[in-house]
Amino acid sequence: MEPTVRFGLIGIYVVHAVLAFVLLIVLKRKMKAPDYGVAVAALSFGLFLPFVAEFAVFAVYRLAERFGRSGLIEDYDDYIDFKVVNYEQIRHEANSSAHLLPLTDAINSKDPAIRKHSILTHVNQSIDQQGKYLQMGLESKDSETVHYAAATMNILIDQYEQELKLAKREYDLGNPDTIQRLATIYKRMIHSELITEVMLKDKQTAWLEELLKVKTLYPPAPWIYEDLNEIYLTLQHPKEQLNILKEYVHHFPERIEAHLMLINFYYERERWNEVKAVMFMMQTQFSLEDVPYEYRLLFEEWSDTTSWKNEL
After folding, report:
1. Domain residue spans of the chain
2. CB 39 within 8 A of CB 48
3. What confidence tens digit (pLDDT) does each residue in 72-83 have?
4. I want to staple 16 with a disulfide (CB 3.0 to 4.6 A). Which of 33, 50, 155, 265 is the partner?
């Protein structure tokens, strides 16, 4: 190669390197990070093929912008840009189940004193699923823990039976409070998980009968519809459950709980049109702030947020 040509090429590389360095300094202040990264890549390739590499990278970049990026890249961008819009829902769910793990660990603890304390103090309180936790105690390898669990279970079952006898003795069809008291005891017994399968079905039937009595004899009350919704859900009677929820909304349109229960029913069955219809009905009665946090994201995504009461 002629010396003149060689020096000419070296000169081009030197000039290119200087221009590239100056250009990078200038562009860093004016370009966004993703675009600046493309510029750095182009000028780096240019160290091997001055000017040609920059032009090629620029052309490919423009084509990519015009015809779109790959789905994989878009998904990745969505992933790294994702922002949790409903932290309150996470907090709500964490709070609602926070007691489960410590109690489970306490009953299964290697320390007999902790096991005894958890049974006598925590499980003996009025909490749901008492039977579940006491069963853990019954399955313990420690005989003392088994003894405390069995004794506590017998005491709790006896307490429920005594409450039930008293409620039946005071039962009066002319007094709705006595019907509610009896229905509530049946409900607590079912939630306790202390009773056998045979007793469970018997108590579910009895609970349903009392609810239907009070619904027939007395004016509508929210607790009646909410309990009927629960028992029909448990017994897997969707037709009756839907009718009850529609009645609940009809009699108590001002209660957001009624609408949310109806939305849950439709949502679990993927009846999206009905979900949106209930949301639309709610928009003139409630503000978006009235919607509980655990439902907020669904409402923001599926409804016209500018049409809510507080936005009118």
Report:
1. 3-81
2. no
3. 445 545 544 545
4. 50
